Amino acid sequence: MAPDKKRAARCRGTLVFLDETGIFLTPFVRRTWAPSGQTPILRTRTRHHRHLSLIGGITISPRRRHLGWYLHFHANRSIRQEQVIAFLRDLLRHLRGEIFLVWDRLNAHRGKRIRAFLAQRPRLHTDFLPPYAPELNPNEYGWGYLKCNSLANYAPDDLTELKTKTKRALARIQNQQTLLGGFIRATGLPLRITRKR
Asked: Are 176 and 131 in contact (CB under 8 A)?
């Protein structure tokens, strides 16, 4: 177990895995069922570059009994330090006590503004995942589930429609503790989640 994970367990702090992704108007094409000889056709508009950017933080409560998935949406905007700081501010408002944040080495996580922000928030501690190891971040499995299940073969007309559908799909995922636990177990990290009694 990495030092910050041990510290999180000792201090009964909240462990947070943070990651970002993009969802485009182009549909995620998956195999599907159709009557014999009737190939399904997905009709989509142009403007494939238009997209939603998402920041997600999968949280493990101090007693390891509750999982959460906090999310921010940004339309047609890349994730930069400004968006990361806004997300971290919300986390600090919603979570009590020490917060142990685990994330990758994205430039937006290592810039001057981020370092200055962290320096002024003593209850927010950070640790980097190893380079080129996205499989250790449970958000990656959450994004994969969202795109390959909830949004599979979905061709929205515009970003508003895409955002509405994505928010509804994510709300369903957020309410499923077993599914969130599956994302964490898929990483292979030595984290034990105990269910509420």
From this structure: no
Tokens of residue 74, six digits: 């940004």
CA atoms of 142 and 153, how far apart (whole Å): 18
Residue 30: name the closest of 151, 137, 134 by CA: 151
pLDDT of residue 1: 44
pLDDT band at 25 (very low <50, low <70, confident <90, very high): confident
47: left (phi over 0), alpha (psi -120 to 50) or beta: left
Q: At 83, phi and psi to the nearest 5?
A: -70, -35
The one-letter amino acid code at 14 reads T
Q: Which two tokens stand for residue 69?
A: 């998935």
| E-strand stretches of the chain | 14-24, 51-60, 67-75, 99-103, 124-128
Distances (CA, A) of 197 to 65, 127, 168, 183, 194: 9, 31, 28, 21, 9
Among residues 77, 91, 78, 81, which one has the least CA distance to residue 112?
A: 81
* CB count in 10 Å sphere of residue 43: 7
Q: Which pTM does this prediction carry? A: 0.84
Domain 3-27+42-186 falls under CATH 3.30.420.10:
yes
Domain boundaries, the chain: 3-27+42-186
At 97, the pLDDT band (50, 70, 90 cuts) reads very high
Residue 49 pLDDT level (bands cut at 50, 70, 90): confident
